[in-house]
Write a structure and sequence with these properties.
220 residues; alpha/beta; Alpha-Beta Plaits; 2 domains; 5-stranded antiparallel sheet; 7 helices; 30% helix
């Protein structure tokens, strides 16, 4: 997984260190040249010196597919601008934004940053919830990371093809709420059967997400 972090302070450094230990490819943007020099000596990551709220700097960091973008500077306004650019200009689906002031959380979310958080622990949790298997992915986090909305793809040779929802043993605290088939939205019932190419939307607890993805990823 490739991750871009904006902000090389204590939080950005520790996040980068944690992600590198998990074998993630990390690129870190920091505008202070002295901090960049220190980070370059401490981290096995690409360090980009510049303002992460500027398009040119982001373009330099966001090369190829980026799985997760994290803005953790000490200024909420910079985090907002960087995150909005990452979502709208560079089409990154997983964007996590730090709110230094808890009172700014709701404002950030209303401005389109669904994963706006204060807690370092929650940031790590949100990163680890990025589900990148062939069967689906996490598209939104709910209730401070305790639950999520997952998009599940019915892939070729999947065991769920032809099965009615009532016959699929879903993990606890999970609910399939809709499916899209040939551009037609279907509100599923227990006797609704799954077909190749169906795009399924489910709500589930954080503990159930990987289990749910695994069910839809299993092949014959």
């Amino acid at each position: 997984m490739k991750v871009v972090i904006v902000g090389g302070g204590n939080l950005g450094y520790n996040l980068a260190l944690s992600l590198i230990d998990k074998d993630y490819e990390v690129r870190l943007i920091e505008k202070d040249k002295n901090i960049c020099a220190l980070l370059a000596n401490k981290l096995d990551a690409e360090i980009i010196c510049g303002d992460g709220s500027e398009i040119e700097v982001l373009a330099d960091a966001i090369k190829g597919k980026v799985d997760c973008f994290i803005a953790v500077t000490d200024k909420d306004q910079d985090n907002l601008v960087a995150s909005q650019l990452a979502q709208k200009r560079f089409q990154i689906k997983k964007v996590i934004t730090r709110a230094n002031n808890p009172r700014n959380l709701e404002a950030l979310r209303k401005l389109g940053i669904a994963n706006a958080v204060c807690s370092t622990e929650l940031i790590i949790k949100l990163i680890e919830q990025e589900l990148d298997s062939a069967g689906g992915r996490l598209i939104a986090s709910l209730n401070k990371g305790q639950a999520g909305i997952c998009e599940l793809q019915v892939i070729r040779d999947a065991k769920v093809i032809g099965k009615a929802l009532k016959d699929i043993k879903l993990p606890k605290s999970s609910l399939i709420v809709s499916l899209l088939r040939d551009d037609e939205l279907i509100i599923p019932q227990g006797d609704t059967t799954l077909a190749l190419g169906d795009e399924v939307i489910a709500i589930c607890s954080s503990e159930s997400q990987k289990k749910l993805i695994k069910i839809f990823s299993e092949k014959w």
